[in-house]
Amino acid sequence: MQVRHPRNSGRLIALDDLSLPPQHFASADAEWEQDNPKEECGVFGIFAPGEEVARTTFFGLFALQHRGQESAGIAVSDGRNLQIHKGMGLVTQVFHEDTIRDLKGISAIGHTRYSTTGSSILCNAQPLSCLSRVGDISVAHNGNLVNTASLRAELQAEGVKFETTNDSEVIAQLLAKYHHGCIEETMKQVMQRIQGAYSLVVLTGDQLVGARDPYGIRPLCLGRINGEHYVMASETCAFVPVGAEYLREVEPGEVIVVDRDGLREFQVIPTIRHATCLLEFIYFARPDSMLYNHSLHQARRRMGQQLAKEFPCPDAHVVIPVPDTGVPAAIGFAEASRTPFGEGIIKSRYIQRTFIQPSQRMRELGARMKYTPLKETLAGKKVVMVDDTIVRGTTTGKLVKMLYDAGAEEVHVRITAPPVKHPCYYGIDMANQDELIAAKKSVEDIRRHIGAASLGYLSLDGVVKAIGMGKENFCRACFDGKYPIPIPQDVRVTKLMLEKDRHIEEDGPDDGSPDSD
Questions:
Q1: Interval 59-86: pLDDT, tens
Q2: Which of 302, 385, 417, 512: CA 20 to 30 A from 447?
Q3: 197 and 270 share a domain?
Q4: Residue 342: inside a domain, yes or no?
Q5: Containing structural domain, residue 162
Q6: pTM score
Q7: Which candidate, 328, 344, 316, places its Cα nearest to that of 454?
Q8: Considering only 78-87, 331-340, 358-367, 425-434, which range has the smallest mean pLDDT?
């Protein structure tokens, strides 16, 4: 249905009828999937007059679903006016055929969200729109700002009324404040103010804009569709389903503008350094994506090979992955160690966000709702289990126990990321430092905690060697504590840092509209 946005000059924003509070959504594995860093967000944009831009954006977001499953949205421009449809849940839960059919225009942006600042409620879903002097402007953001609080206070002092509790609205409000008609100048002014990690797709009445922070922490790439139109996305994997050709990555500090006159590229802020998140290579991005023109599948395979050199397990009978992200590395480990590769754990591909809450008994079953051991692969065997990360140390221990219960003689755990010891301030909802098991325990203590026969983490040097680039090209702060963008000492970024600034009912807005400030 369409509801009037109460604060922006009668603009129409189409919202999903589904406006249930977030606790009505249950992830069937949320109780135990705590060992992996959580997704950031996925963004997609297209400028293609004559094409079904909303439909193309839907399929682009579908390919980026792994980057966030809490909410999804699409904003479409018909050349002058913007229309938005967004809701809680997966892309396929938010959009239906009649919705897509009604979203007609020449350009569109889309967003699939995992909340890193601001709780998981409908008013925080993106894209976010604000009214500028020359019309609506909408933004979809992947990343996290580190100067949100000061910018928000400044805007509030100027009379801005915030409707969300996420940092992305600060960007949207700044875009609206500075946009007087020249989008290039607008982006320059905004990017000179915001600090932190951001990959943005921005939509005006007649333009699509892409931008990346001067460190390039979060990915953003450019493609061409049907030979003449342009698309942008967080990952190259979003191009294949829509028939787009990958052109290149958006450079750190660069802005790309697409309109009826074509494509324009300009460097708004000098590149400070390349510092793409190393976890994108290890875990986040889909293995069929490219970063720095490197195949992630091949990089992860080489990580497994390097892991076998650093922490061999010569007496093992079989190497198994924790599906799905551990598969390429497990293949590489098996190749380098000359140990048979096997499937020892089957993952249910159909466990998604649902309205049906697991019972307490089902919660206690833990990982068994998501994973099933293959006893014929495991029984009586010395097993090497390859995974990408250990964050809190909860799931890994449950998986190790599951393998032993299935008859494994020994379970040796190998991890393709170094120990995670520091929190992320740039758009990954990982954990507070006191929740990071490697910040408190030695590798041997962690081994005992998870119940493994042995435990080996790939070294930081081993990771970058496997990728084939120097470590200076990456943000690796969660491993070594060296943050490329300074974190203000008085700032402690958490996903709910702005909740104190406004009252939000525990159940969220019951009609999808924002609460009063």
A1: 999 999 999 888 999 999 999 999 999 9
A2: 302
A3: yes
A4: yes
A5: 2-275
A6: 0.86
A7: 316
A8: 358-367
Q: Give mean pLDDT, residues 443-471.
A: 97
**Strand runs labelled E in 19-134:** 26-27, 41-47, 71-77, 82-88, 107-113, 128-132
The closest of 44, 158, 162 to 108, measured between CA atoms, is 44
> What's the structural domain count of the chain?
2
Q: How many of the other CB atoms lie within 10 Å of CB of 503?
A: 9
Q: What is the four-CA torsion angle of 63, 68, 71, 74, rounded to 10 degrees?
A: -40
**CA 380, 382, 386, 389: dihedral to nearest 10 degrees?**
100
41, 221, 313, 475: the catalytic one is: 41
Confidence at 124, pLDDT banded by 50, 70, 90: confident
Model confidence over 365-420: pLDDT tens digits? 666 678 999 999 999 999 999 999 999 888 899 999 999 999 999 999 999 999 99
In this structure, are 367 and 253 located in the same domain?
A: no
CATH of the domain at 204: 3.60.20.10
Rounded-to-integer distance, Cα 295 and Cα 298, Å: 5
Cα-based torsion angle of the residue sequence 329, 330, 335, 340 in order, rounded to the nearest 10 degrees: -170
**Mean pLDDT estimate for the chain:** 85
| Amino acid residing at 229 | H
Q: Which residues pair with 71 in a beta bridge?
A: 88, 113
From CA 499, how far away is CA 439, in angstroms rounded? 28
* For helices 168-178 and 183-193, angle between their N-to-C axes, nearest 10 degrees: 130
Tell whether 430 is covered by a domain. yes
pLDDT recorded at residue 122: 76
Find the mean pLDDT for residues 177-202: 96
- Give the 3-state secondary structure of 369-438: HCEEECHHHHCCCEEEEEECCCCCCCHHHHHHHHHHHCCCCEEEEEECCCCCCCCCCCCCECCCHHHCHH
Separation CA 337–CA 29 (nearest Å): 32
